[in-house]
């Protein structure tokens, strides 16, 4: 792959989705059902109470719906294109990533960027519809909206590196499907996808604060709904940025060590 055309790697997974209209229809239906179910659930939970865990009903509903929409940013069917690290390791074709003019780490980054931009289109479309329908609340101010966007960008950056670490584990475990399922569940749980972290015990919240998962989604959405005030935004953004730097250095080291394990016959 010549350098001037390296950007085409970003189209790999999105093109697989766009060339399969039934798959896009299924995604739209599933996303709509998820939003409706989450909206109904949280409104039902707040039917007989005003504020719980520091969140009002509208804040909780907004948080939960935005979490569903944010999940579309990286929730694409990579297996259809048979271009996941896990598949390449299984079939012994990972060696081709190291034979191209484009370094494997750059190819991986470009492909992930394309997936996130494609997912962003879904998330923004869903957000506009939910905002127009009154399902979610708008940002309380322009400052909140700006901080949320910066935090969300940093959160997706952290998520990219977290997912990269999971893929890099394949170079040592070959078949790590079970491990990836466990880690993906932990990622969704500790990042606040299933429920805001304030509903969990104090020890759980404290433990999650020492892990990068909270920085991926919980922090941006907490800033959006006002659970984290703007006065604390600078500190939270610095924590997210620190996780980006730490994970970037860690994954760079793993890429170097992974290259030593690749042989000419494949995985």
Automatic annotation (TrEMBL):
TM regions (residue ranges) = 117-136, 142-166, 178-200, 233-255
The cross-references to InterPro entries, in alphabetical order and at most eight, read:
ABC-2_transporter-like
Signal peptide (residue range): none
- Which branch of life, at top level? Bacteria
List the keywords (alphabetical).
Membrane, Transmembrane, Transmembrane helix
Q: Which Pfam family, any one of them, does this sequence belong to?
A: ABC2_membrane_6
Q: What is this protein called?
A: ABC-2 family transporter protein
Q: Which organism is it from?
A: Streptomyces tuirus
